[in-house]
Design a protein that fits this description.
about 400 residues, alpha+beta, FAD/NAD(P)-binding domain, D-Amino Acid Oxidase, Chain A, domain 2, 2 domains, 9-stranded mixed β-sheet, 11 helices, Ubi_Hdrlase_CS
Length: about 400
């Protein structure tokens, strides 16, 4: 995609999955869009898996279907979650079933690079899209437009700048939005394993000693690990060789899936809660991790970001003809649409993390009793599934 114009309706800053999805959604809405992003990383070797895996909800699937990205994904690389079993740190257990909830699946487990390749292919054929491999380094807001200065010396003019540039967002910093961050003092350790026993399209989660261990079903006889471990423990896990790590995961998961063989190097990323006082600024809208960062215990971070994208694209597609994409009325509509969903999910994930991190026999008994009560209420479980589906 060659550089065609300096004037755009929207400029999306950030080339992750949320940024690329935003660029595709906006350009398919008829908006002349520029995407500031570096080229995609090479695909993993044949037969291997990404270390980064996402659990996509029905709302994310629906968005990708509207953009004609989902249909292009390789079906044999999609892992449906038909059941989920959650174990407390004492006697409690929760079981969620797609069949009982009357839905096709609870989630889809998908490799990051699989989605990214489909997004890249779709973006290459958008006549209204200009893909620029450069970094933004200056932003000035005028009454009629936003002006972005790039590292390559170019200047772009746009009605709206979309900040999709992650938790350490440069765009957010330019708006002056107040960001609050609380470090969980945990690291997410991720790796993929071949398992001895069939996973049966079941996702497993264990709460143990203030840590959370999840095994997510990949196609075939593989699973993806997400271990939210205390930072010191995570450092130890990341130093283990593949066989030692597999042994630790087997022990932590009570050999639920039998012997494990580590098939990708373990990686770690710090976990934190991050909120902003506003999602918008003059001619700026924030989406994805630039707007919020939540604990991964529910696997909802990417889904939350994709719901931002869907809401922004729908708001701009429905705008009155006399309004530009950066009209403050439209931006306030977008922010109002997203506030409740973001606040609810942020509070829920943070509350659960605090609850299971609380030490003491009394706290352990109370939370496991609560889990058992939820497990005995089919209507409550169905409501929880509905909320997770988006």
């Amino acid at each position: 995609m060659t550089f065609q114009s300096r004037n755009f309706h929207t400029v999306v800053v950030g080339g992750g999955l949320v940024g690329k999805t935003a660029a595709l959604a906006l350009t398919q809405s008829g908006l002349r869009t520029a995407l500031l992003a570096t080229p995609a990383a090479p695909a993993p070797a044949a037969g291997s898996f990404d270390s980064r895996i996402y659990a996509l909800s029905s709302s994310s699937q629906a968005l990708l279907e509207r953009l004609r990205v989902w249909q292009a994904l390789e079906r044999d690389k999609l892992g449906p979650v038909l059941d989920m079993r959650v174990f407390g740190d004492a006697f409690a257990e929760l079981h969620f079933s797609a069949f009982q909830a009357a839905v096709p699946q609870l989630a889809w487990i998908v490799e990051s690079s699989l989605i990214e390749r489909s997004l890249d292919a779709a973006l290459r054929f958008q006549p209204n899209l200009t893909w620029i491999d450069s970094r933004a380094q200056g932003l000035t807001i005028h009454d009629d437009a936003a002006h972005l200065t790039l590292a390559n010396g170019d200047t772009l003019e746009a009605d709206l700048v979309v900040g999709a540039d992650g938790a350490h967002s440069w765009v957010r910093a330019q708006t002056g939005a107040k960001m609050l961050r609380r470090d969980y003092r945990q690291t997410g350790v991720v790796a993929n394993f071949k398992c001895e026993k069939p996973h049966g399209e079941t996702a497993y989660q264990w709460f143990r000693d203030g840590e959370i261990i999840a095994l997510l079903p990949l196609p075939g006889d593989h699973v993806s690990l997400v271990w939210s471990a205390k930072t010191e423990h995570a450092d130890t896990l990341l130093k283990l060789d593949p066989a030692q790590l597999a042994a630790e995961v087997e022990k932590a998961t009570q050999n639920m899936l039998g012997a494990l063989e580590c098939v990708t190097p373990a990686q770690g990323f710090p976990l934190a809660l991050q909120t902003v006082d506003r999602l918008i600024g003059p001619r700026v809208a924030l989406v994805g991790d630039a707007a919020h960062l939540i604990h991964p215990l529910a696997g909802q971070g990417m889904n939350l970001g994709l719901r931002d994208v869907a809401a922004l694209a729908e708001t701009l597609a429905a705008k009155e003809a006399f309004r530009s994409a950066g009209d403050p009325v439209l931006l306030r509509r977008y922010e109002r649409t997203r506030r409740e969903d973001i606040q609810k999910l942020t509070l829920a994930c943070d509350g659960l993390q605090k609850l299971f991190a609380m030490p003491g026999t009394l706290a352990r008994g109370l939370r496991n009793t609560g889990m058992a009560l939820v497990g005995a209420q089919p209507l409550v479980k169905r409501w929880l599934v509905s909320a997770a589906l988006g």
